[in-house]
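Sat 14:20. Reprocessing the chain from the morning session after the first attempt stalled halfway. Input below, unchanged.
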Amino acid sequence: MEPSNSQSSPPAKYVALSDGLYDYIARHRSRVVDPLLAELRAETESLGDAARMLISPEQGDFLTLLTKLLEVRSAIEVGTFTGYSSICLARGLADGGRLHCFDVNAEWTAIAQRYWEKEGVASRIELQLGDAKQALLNWMPPEPLDLAFIDADKPGYETYFEILLPKMKPNGLFIFDNMVWGGRVIEQPLTDPDGLAIDRLNQKLAHDPRVESVLLPIADGLHLARKR
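Finished this time. C-alpha cells:
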C-alpha cells in the first residue's frame, strides 16, 4: 500500500471561555479599578434590560488602547447610549482630537453627558441627536476620520459604513460591535433581521476590496476594517 499524501488539518486554535477564565482575563488589565466607569456601569444597569447594550470593561480598554496606538485625532461613534464607549474613546484621543457622537435617545445620552463632564472629556466630544442615517448624509467631519466605532441599530450598519467610508482617511479604522451576535450569527436558517444584517456585513467586509478586515471574538465580536 502506498503511503497517503493527505494530511489532517491542524485543530482550530481558540480557547472557550469559562466564567473562571473570563474572570482571570478581566482581572489582568491595567484599569481593573476604574471608579468612574464602575459608577456609570452601575447607573446604566439600573435601566433594566437596556443595560445589555453596555460594552464590556475589557472591550472599553481595547478601544482606548487602539485609539492611542493609532494617534486618533478625528473619531466618530454611532450609538452612544449612556457614554461608556465614548469615554473610552475620548480617553485615547491625541491632543486636540475630537469625538463626534450620534444617537437618537436624549434620555440615555443625558447620562453620557453627565459622565463626560465628570471625566473631564466633554470638551473633546460633540453630540448630535436624531436619525444618524439622515444626519450623516450631510455631515462632514472637520478633518477626515481616523476611526469609526459603530454600535447602533444592526440593520443600519451597512448604511453607516457606506456613508462614512468616503469621509475616512486611508488606513482609517472601522470597529463594528456585536458582530457574532451572541453566537447566534451561525444559526441555520438565520431569520432575525438583526442577525441577517450582521451576517451580511461580515461577509461584505471580508470580501470588499476597499477594506482589509478581521473579525475578532472580543466580547460579542468586533469586526475591524481598515480602509485601504
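The mean pLDDT is 95.
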